């Protein structure tokens, strides 16, 4: 084979290789352009999907907060109903306590006549009925004499020095105190040892 033929063959191979490279780079450019077009086409859809995901997450968070608020409301309402039921008779009891005090003072009187004894007997019956009604509603008188003074349950109106009692101990009860389901509705008026 002559040198010219070899050179021609070599030139043809170089040209073919160059054309193949051009074709390959052209195809690569076409693929890149197609990908860019697809990216541009997908981009609005992808943005819409992301926006919908964000809206869904926000709605789910809002729903969780609303559910928690509702649960808190339900618990608070239940507690308020329980407290209302527990202390429903407080106002009535507070209104009756002065009448109970008057009954107790009247019952300390010694009757002189038969008629006064009968009247006193009737008053004792009424007093007992009112006391039982209050106890059925969990209204109870406090035990105070000999107990340590508690400012949450007692109202000190006098301070005395009595032998036989320790310091800060109640010596005498001047007016009964009452509780309703362990809540003080009227503190006891007491004398306290100094």
From TrEMBL:
<comment type="subunit">
    <text>Homodimer.</text>
</comment>
<dbReference type="GO" id="GO:0000774">
    <property type="term" value="F:adenyl-nucleotide exchange factor activity"/>
</dbReference>
<dbReference type="InterPro" id="IPR009012">
    <property type="entry name" value="GrpE_head"/>
</dbReference>
<keyword id="KW-0346">Stress response</keyword>
<dbReference type="GO" id="GO:0051082">
    <property type="term" value="F:unfolded protein binding"/>
</dbReference>
<dbReference type="GO" id="GO:0051087">
    <property type="term" value="F:protein-folding chaperone binding"/>
</dbReference>
<keyword id="KW-0143">Chaperone</keyword>
<feature type="compositionally biased region" description="Basic and acidic residues">
    <location>
        <begin position="50"/>
        <end position="60"/>
    </location>
</feature>
<dbReference type="Pfam" id="PF01025">
    <property type="entry name" value="GrpE"/>
</dbReference>
<dbReference type="GO" id="GO:0005737">
    <property type="term" value="C:cytoplasm"/>
</dbReference>
<dbReference type="InterPro" id="IPR013805">
    <property type="entry name" value="GrpE_CC"/>
</dbReference>
<feature type="region of interest" description="Disordered">
    <location>
        <begin position="1"/>
        <end position="62"/>
    </location>
</feature>
<comment type="function">
    <text>Participates actively in the response to hyperosmotic and heat shock by preventing the aggregation of stress-denatured proteins, in association with DnaK and GrpE. It is the nucleotide exchange factor for DnaK and may function as a thermosensor. Unfolded proteins bind initially to DnaJ; upon interaction with the DnaJ-bound protein, DnaK hydrolyzes its bound ATP, resulting in the formation of a stable complex. GrpE releases ADP from DnaK; ATP binding to DnaK triggers the release of the substrate protein, thus completing the reaction cycle.</text>
</comment>
<dbReference type="GO" id="GO:0042803">
    <property type="term" value="F:protein homodimerization activity"/>
</dbReference>
<keyword id="KW-0963">Cytoplasm</keyword>
<protein>
    <recommendedName>
        <fullName>Protein GrpE</fullName>
    </recommendedName>
</protein>
<dbReference type="InterPro" id="IPR000740">
    <property type="entry name" value="GrpE"/>
</dbReference>
<comment type="similarity">
    <text>Belongs to the GrpE family.</text>
</comment>
<feature type="compositionally biased region" description="Acidic residues">
    <location>
        <begin position="27"/>
        <end position="49"/>
    </location>
</feature>
<feature type="compositionally biased region" description="Acidic residues">
    <location>
        <begin position="10"/>
        <end position="19"/>
    </location>
</feature>
<dbReference type="GO" id="GO:0006457">
    <property type="term" value="P:protein folding"/>
</dbReference>
């Amino acid at each position: 084979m002559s040198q010219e033929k070899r050179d021609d063959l070599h030139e043809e191979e170089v040209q073919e290789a160059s054309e193949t490279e051009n074709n390959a780079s052209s195809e690569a450019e076409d693929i890149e352009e197609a990908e860019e077009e697809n990216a541009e086409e997908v981009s609005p859809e992808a943005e819409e999907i992301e926006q919908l995901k964000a809206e869904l997450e926000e709605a789910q968070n809002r729903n969780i907060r609303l559910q928690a608020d509702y649960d808190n409301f339900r618990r608070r309402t239940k507690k308020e109903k329980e407290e209302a039921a527990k202390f429903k008779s407080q106002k009535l009891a507070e209104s009756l306590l002065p009448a109970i005090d008057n009954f107790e003072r009247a019952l300390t009187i010694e009757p002189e006549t038969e008629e006064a004894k009968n009247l006193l007997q009737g008053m004792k019956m009424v007093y007992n009925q009112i006391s039982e009604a209050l106890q059925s509603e969990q209204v109870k008188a406090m035990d105070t004499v000999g107990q340590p003074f508690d400012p949450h349950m007692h109202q000190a109106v006098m301070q005395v020095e009595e032998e036989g009692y320790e310091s800060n101990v109640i010596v005498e009860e001047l007016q009964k105190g009452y509780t309703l389901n362990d809540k003080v509705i009227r503190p006891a008026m007491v004398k306290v040892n100094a």
